[in-house]
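Hey, resending since the last one bounced:
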Amino acid sequence: MTGIDLAFYVLAGFSIAGGLGLAVTRSVVHGALFLILALMGVGGVFFTLLADFLALVQVLLYAGGVTILMLFAMMLTQVREQPEATNNPQRPWAALASLAFFGAVTATIVVTPWPRNLPEGAQHVEFVDIAGTLFTRWAVPFEIASLLLLVALIGAIIVAREATE
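The structure tokens again:
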């Protein structure tokens, strides 16, 4: 086992631990923090797989931006803990269904013959080429998406203020 393999398994463990923590926690804020742990682990896994751009997007956009936006929305809308929402009779069935799904995914991963090398014709794309395409061809769609997120945040502020007045 090489160092890259060890790093992959450790980061995958962080991702699984974050996902499990997210699934079992009863606090919304703790859930968001577990989500950050899971997303950072996935970003690390992308780095070990030499997918630098995906790792950077995962860490900056998802673990950084989206999760922090969720935390801000929770703070602005004054989320209250609701124990009756997390204690329901379907909880054991949900646990059984998730264990069955986990078993099916694990069995699929174990029996699949995964290739060890890149397929023929696959090539590594440099960061400079990706950045050039993003800042020329895809700049307008990214700006539209950022405006939509800004409008959603302003809407959350307005809804939270109307509820408190």
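The mean pLDDT is 85.

Sorry for the duplicate.
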